[in-house]
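Q: I have 285 residues here and want to know how they pack in 3D. Can you give me a structure?
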Amino acid sequence: MEGTFEWTFQKIQYWHDPSQQGPVEQELATKMLQIQSKRFYLDVKQNRRGRFIKVAEIGADGRRSQIFLALSTAAEFRDHLSTFSDFYSSLGPPNPENVPEDGKLRSEMMVKDNRRYYLDLKENSRGRFLRVSQTITRGGPRSQVAIPAQGMIEFRDALTDLLDEFSADEHAYKPDLPEGRHVHVDNKNFYFDIGQNNRGVYMRISEVKTNIRTAITIPEKSWPRFRDILADYCDKIKPGSSGAGSVAATADQSHTMGNSNSTQQHLQDTSGGGGGGGGGSSSMK
């Protein structure tokens, strides 16, 4: 049957729980690197929006910093690591008298949706390192990690191993799904959330009123059909359209017929009780 789809409907009690905010994450793999006095963890994770890699740096003092990379961004970063490593090898020994004022030896930038990544090979009194900074265009704090220059190749190889394993079926996952949307109508809230599971991408439309949440889940393959149906209704119902006129005419006609039927019924009632009424009138006379 054309246009068939699977969908689920559920009505559940919905209570706001701050501890459950954000998508649930699943860890798929992890690698640990010890580079000089720092430890780095490369974690492949997956949530409702897809797969990504979290890079966490643990300093000698225990301080932790981290950045997040979509798999496609991680692949681009891996390629930059090769370029930076080749450049680093060509520099020769550090020369304190020939260091740029800002310490930068080479810089690159990566852009992915609403995130920007700044890659700066820098030099200071403690040596050379690659600083990777992540910023979000809509605001928020900058997060960054610093990889000692001597460990860039080791870092690249570890990243390559993870990408080889988890990018093989990346086509089945979309790591950068659209963000959720919200519509408020009267005293109701409607939420549109995009997610995915092992069966593919889906849209969950939730209606939330007080503590009740009702939701339907629509598979991605059915979105165009839903869109066409909604567009058709919008064209028929919008003010000034023939469809709206037909609906209004039908409503008016039903209202008129209802009034007519009421009047007719009233006359029948009056006529049916005329004998008694007439008798009553005669008596009064």
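Q: Anything worth noting?
A: Helices lie at 71-89, 152-166, 223-237, 242-272, 274-284. The chain has five helices and 13 strands.
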